[in-house]
Amino acid sequence: MFRDKRALALFLGPGLLGLLVFYLAPFAGGVYYSVTDGSFRNAFVGLDNYLKVWQNEMFQVGLRNTLELSLLCAPAIFVLSFVIAVLLRDLGNSTFFRNAMLLPYLMPSSAMILIWMLVFDYGGVFNRLMGLFGLPQQIWMDGALLRLPVILLYIWKNLGYSVVIFTSALQVIPQALYEYASLEGAGRLRQETAITLPLVSPTAFLIFVLAWVNAFKIFKEIYFIGGAYADLYTLQHFMNNHFARINYQYVTTAAYTFAAIVLAIFAVLYVTELRRRANV
Amino acid sequence: MIRSRKHPIAAIGLTLLCALLLLPIAFTFFYSFFPKTEMQAYLALRGRYDGSWLPILLSPKLFSLRQYYTILIEDTVYLRLFFNSLYYTVTILLGQAVFVPAMACGLSRFRFRGRELLFFTVLAMMLMPFQVTQVPNVITLRIMGLMNTSWAVVLPMWFTPFYIFLLRQFMIGIPSEMFEAGMVDGAGAIRGYFYVLLPVCRPVLGAALALSFADSWNMVEQPLVYLQNEATRPLSVMFNVLTDTRADIAFAGAALYILPTLILYFYFQEDILLGVQLSDLK
User: Fold this and answer.
1) Of these four, A201, B91, B110, B276, which has the most CB atoms within 10 Å of its CB?
2) Is the pTM of this model over 0.90?
3) Which among B1, B106, B159 has the least Cβ separation from residue A22?
4) If pLDDT is split at 50, 70 and 90, which confidence band does B48 have?
5) A164 contact B CB<8A
6) Is B174 exposed, middle or buried (0-12, 13-18, 19+ CB in 10 A)?
7) How far is the C-alpha of A280 from the C-alpha of B20, rounded, in Å?
8) How many structural domains compose chain B?
9) What pLDDT, in 10s, does the model give residues B232-275?
10) How confident is the model at residue B181 (pLDDT cuts 50, 70, 90)?
11) Chain B residue with minimal CA distance to A174?
12) Hey, are the CB atoms on B137 and A240 less than 8 Å from each other?
């Protein structure tokens, strides 16, 4: 531990100043915009902006789509990465596989769109595969179905991250537990659900939260694929629209509303997790 | 303590999965060596709804560097955007190198009142969705008059909470003896920082460098709102605009766009694995 007070100021000061200037102070100060009307008088309007934004149809659509898309992506990534991590452990945690899976995480999604458009074209590989299973061709690049290529692109990019975290959490589970369960006659599936899952649950909780918060950024993938349709209009579209009009009243109000919703869901998840842990 | 069971199904499944994950990247590079005319004709076959299959293109008439020749020498639109991206990314990384490790050091190697509270604040900011943290950024950028300048894209990124968190997680686990051994002659915190802490942190710094590079190289939300002038926008937001009209060079453009992250990935892959594992809060 270093003790020098002046050195501490030197280390912490610049970073703290940056956080204050760009994040904390305007976050607190922005409350002012959300309760005034934005005219040159800047009259106090109480919660009027909140009511207006909540009733705004585009805000509702954006919020709903953002939550829906994230709640499709996060559980998918969660389940897939758990299964993959278990399989990886069986293979002795090959570094090659982990590296290969993490690689897409660093790739620019926009560069992948070209391939995606070929795969999900009406005559593309995806529809060919559907044909093999006797399913009809679909128009994936339009309307509500466009959600599938978008979600798959998102999963393609972000899956490896969760896999790596799960893998490292699995490594600390003592082998003896499985041997004991085996002697007691527990099958493979029972072992994974009764031993592995509860023992990685703190990590699992984190992975779910991270996957879920990150999935709010799915705007990126939507922007590249070029969907601003009703089924893919997200909160980020709404924000961008009102940033462009310099409508501080709306962007601050929308941001605080969203922050409150996210915090509420965090709280629910956290309490559920604590209860579950207490019961184990 | 790793259970080693032989599982052919796991091996086959994972191999298939990895192939699926890597194929889009491989095909992007593969297609970048197709002749321009052949590629353009192929991409024009998209969007037919008469039930005919899009052929799967596996062998070019000849391998050609024409696509690369065009984007690198003939037509510099792409290259200019590429250098915009490079400029923003390097500027962001330089700033982060100054502010982020220092702040992480303050949060882990010093003891002071309010340290846990400050760390918790950083954590809370890190978990906030981007739609929420972007608003304070924009308010400050407008007040400072930095909108539509390159600083708008760069400055807020210098203080990205995630990297402060990541480095702090690593630094807090370094045993104190390491510093005591290095500081027998009573060297101060600043010497300890440069001569002991930073060298010891090399793996996590590598991870942060690679992850942050990818973040900046791929950023979309910020330049889209902060930079109205298309000539100053980075490749990340302009790439699909460009390829909409230039199908013939699209794949070479994509391959070149991927290349820096790919090189960085192979150079730092061990560090990145470590860095990602560190983001597990425990």
Assistant:
1) B276
2) no
3) B159
4) confident
5) yes
6) middle
7) 38
8) 1
9) 899 888 888 888 778 788 888 899 999 999 999 999 988 888 88
10) low
11) B1
12) no
CB contact under 8 A, B138 and A15: no
How many beta-carbon pairs under 8 angstroms link A with B?
Answer: 301
Q: Is there a contact between A196 and A83 (Cβ–Cβ < 8 Å)?
A: no
- Domain range annotation of chain A: 35-279
- Domain assignment of residue B141, given as a range: 71-278
**Does the CB of A137 have a partner CB in chain B at under 8 Å?**
yes
- Is the minimum CB–CB distance between A209 and chain B shorter than 8 Å? yes
Residue B110 has its nearest CB partner, among A2, A220, A235, at A2
**Chain A nearest CA to B133, separation (Å):** 7
Instruction: Identify whether B204 is part of a domain.
Output: yes
Q: Which of B25, B129, B277 is nearest residue A165 as measured by Cβ atoms?
A: B277
What average pLDDT does range B179-188 have in this prediction? 62
Residues in Cβ contact with A77 at an 8 Å cutoff, skipping those fewer than 6 apart: A155, A158, A159, A162, A211, A215
Residue B273 lies in a domain: yes
Give percent helix, percent strand, percent coil of chain B, each to the nearest 5. 75, 0, 25
pLDDT of residue B2: 44
Give the pLDDT band (50/70/90) at residue A210. confident
Q: State the best of B132, B221, B251 to mutate against chain A, taking most chain A CBs within 10 Å.
A: B132
ipTM score assigned to the predicted complex: 0.87
Across the interface, do A175 and B2 touch by the CB < 8 Å criterion? yes
**Mean pLDDT rounded to a whole number for chain B:** 86
Fold of A35-279: MetI-like fold (1.10.3720)
Domain containing B79 — which CATH number?
1.10.3720.10
